[in-house]
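re: ur question from the group chat, yeah i did fold both. here u go
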Amino acid sequence: MKYAFFPGCKVPYHVPYYDTSARLVLKEFGIELETPEFNCCGYPVRFLDFRAFLFSSARNLALAGRSGLPLLCLCKCCYGTLRYADQLLRNNESLLSETNHRLAEEGLHYPKRPVIKHLLNALFEAIDPETIEKKISRPLKKVKVAAHYGCHILRPHDMVDFDDPVNPGKFEKLVAYTGAESVDWVLRKQCCGDPLWEKNKELSMELANKKIADARQAGAELMCVGCTHCQMQFERVQAEEKAGTEKNFQLPPLLYPQLLGFSLGLDGKDLGISLGIMERLSD
């Protein structure tokens, strides 16, 4: 299996270990990656310049289409954005014609049925559970995890089409492959607060802190994340709380390919896992 790999803009700078751990894990299962010269998915300008957003997404999908490969995203915001753009283009001939006219300037053409997957899709659909379980050499049987979906892989369901938006369970199954136990926590489907960080930092932190507290109350030792923005949010919120005097939640966020990679026996340092979290996983 081979994918056109779309890490997104924020991963290389803010969470490079997401890219590294994903590549290492996918390699373990024989999945190859090709990385065309993609541009931004268009999400940041979606509400400022609609056509700029649409063309940005379309160009990425055209590049993947030229390679004849399905596109694999790390970031759930990118995943939701690309799926939304594809839905718009497939249902509006005028927009599709206009977009293809612009793509033609680079010798590109929008593919008829682009395939857009998030990393969790690929792991859940392209690799059967038995294959994953057979490769687990370091089962995390004593670890309790709060699986955090993130908004853009569940909603809107008719667009992202990953799991039941009301009662999802795929992420918990992916966690179970590692041997870890997923806790049942009330706020698992709520937003982490990241979209509000620059607009209303106080409210953004409040939303994240409520989620962290709820996950801890349910018995979680780690937060397992599959989204670039959610990982950034849980890291910075807890860093600020740790610097203060009132609260210190200490519920480390760990990206799913890091959790899976560690259970596969890969080196924690190569996966970007801190020594403290490695000790927690190894207890």
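okk and heres the other one u asked abt
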Amino acid sequence: MYRITLVLIARNEAASIRRCLDSVRPWVNHLLVLDTGSSDDTVRLAQESGARVEHFPWIDDFAAARNHALHLAQSDWNLVLDADEWVTEGGSELATLRQLRPDFVGSIRIDSDFNTTSGSGACASSWISRVLPRGVRYAGHVHEQPVHDMGVRKLAVHIGHSGYSPQAMVAKQGRNAALLERALLETPGDGYLLYQLGKDHSVYERFEAAADCFGQAAQALAPDHAVAHDLLLRWLYALKKCGRHEQAMHLAESQMGRWEGSPDYWFVVGDLLLDWACEQPERSETLLPMIEASWQRCLEIGERPDLEGAVQGRGSHLAATNLAVFYEGTGQPHEARRYRKMAENTFL
């Protein structure tokens, strides 16, 4: 029997830490929380939830904190989570690790809730290596990555993540950007860090800076890098927000052959074309059929949660809703009703 430990670093996470620990407790042998300087009830709540709590001074280095926690855990398997995450599906899959030799790294699905620009909720999925055998350690001050030469297996484990709530984003504002800029001084031109900095700029609506970072990241990263799909989607969105529609469409067309099987790609293209048509109505005659075809293509493909950065619903109810609005706006009430009903059925 191999031992599994939840390894978690936290600071001032009283609002969420109990949810995390309660969701994991049935599936692991131990709960380890490394507190990095909480001034709220985080420590007390963690202890009441059955966790071993240790302490580590925060030195603006996520890898240092995680590595210290992993050193303290001394477990065969380590499940690395943050306090604003929790197990939603696949706990029994975690439990089966007790019978598996720790000779691979496990990738699990993180489903992040966030608000769209319309104020509605959405959920984006990422596959991240979070199940680590003994001895694997992290590198990187921020958006740290485990360093290893082992094979990676996708595990049927889903994790909820509330770190993109409006309250959480206010609390984090400026922190990650400063750490990323410091890291880029040490490793200039690092594509992954540029991608993460672009994400941070985009979240806080610094779209010109975001587009610049994404462009540099695309030049630095290999075309088949794990974040390539998400990078393209975010780059297109940033260019749209900057009003650089023609540049965005040239980019989208250059990537069509690779991502034609992605509903997220077609969803973002349709959104980009609609924004362009609204800004330049004289183009509408050309753009409207392309918008319609893009969102219909989303429904033909269906959901693709295996793709990095996939947003749930772009292959179903979100695309159908957009088509319903499209047909209402173009005077096609029968089609509008059909797609509105489709959206309601697929959302349920």
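fwiw on the second one: The first strand starts at residue 4 and ends at 10. The domain at 242-347 is CATH 1.25.40.10 (Serine Threonine Protein Phosphatase 5, Tetratricopeptide repeat). idk if thats what u expected
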